[in-house]
Structure formats: C-alpha cells, structure tokens
Amino acid sequence: MTIQVEDIGRSLFNVIDRNNDGQLSIREMRTAWERVKPLCKDGAGLEQKDLPRALRVTLGQGNTFYRGGFVVQPFGGPMTPGRRMGFGSVPVWFTKMDRNFDGDISPKEWLGTEEEFRMIDTDGDGLISAAEARAYEAKRKKDEPKKPDEPKQPAPVKKPAPPKK
Ligand SMILES: [Ca+2]
Ligand SMILES: [Ca+2]
Ligand SMILES: [Ca+2]
Question: Is pLDDT above 50 for 84?
C-alpha cells in the first residue's frame, strides 16, 4: 500500500474541476465562472493567493495507482458543492451513454436521434443531465398506456392438488 501526496498548488483548474477527476467536462467549463467568481474579492480581480491550495492524495497498491485519486482542500478553500452522482436513481441508459462519467450526456455520447435529444434536454443547454434523464424516464412511464382491465385483486393462488393415493 502506498500513499502519494502531491501538492498541486493553487490552480484554477482545480477550482473548475468540480468533481476532481482531472478533466474538465463541458458543464464544468460552462459553470467555471460560477465557481471562480466567489473567489474574486469584490470586483478586485483574482489573485493567485485567492485560489484554494490543494493536495492530491493518491492511494495505490504496488505500482498501480488509482487514476485520479482525490483532492483535499485543507487550507480553508471555499467549499465547492460536490455533485453527487446518484447512480441509483438514474436510468440505466443514462449511465451507459455517459461514457466519460461527467454526469451529462453530450450530443456525441447520445445514441438516439437528435429529436429525442432535444426532447429530453428540457432546459436546452445541449446536455442531458441526470435530472433530465430521470424526468424523462418518469414522464415516459406515466405516459405509457396502462393495460386495460388490470386485475385489481391478485390472481387466486391455485391450491395444490391433493396427492393421489
Ligand atoms: Ca471534472
Ligand atoms: Ca458525458
Ligand atoms: Ca440540459
């Protein structure tokens, strides 16, 4: 078991990379300003020391390091609300299509038609978020025509035939 601690310093990248996976997703780039803005002192611009300092801690066994590791911000950096990936409640197709696991389906990842994409992307930002996928799934289930004359009572359980003697 090896632990690698790396001081990755004060970097805008880490501020923007909200889920600390070392990649900037489309959404992270788009919302970058939201996260950088609070660091700026009342319109006085941004200084490097305003950026949270971060350490990257990588745990590994032998030579295999987990890719990415995780990042702690021990020096009172602003808390960036981490996005919880609620995989449990997200439709399976969503997790399957989100190949880079950034929590959004981009048009590139989308396997359906353009029309469907637009239909599911309700806020029209060009990405299907987990919430939109859930909403679509819920709507689809609701709209599904119910089988008419669904038996309200459970089907009677057949009594086992008495054993023949
Ligand atoms: Ca990221
Ligand atoms: Ca994605
Ligand atoms: Ca969207």
Answer: no
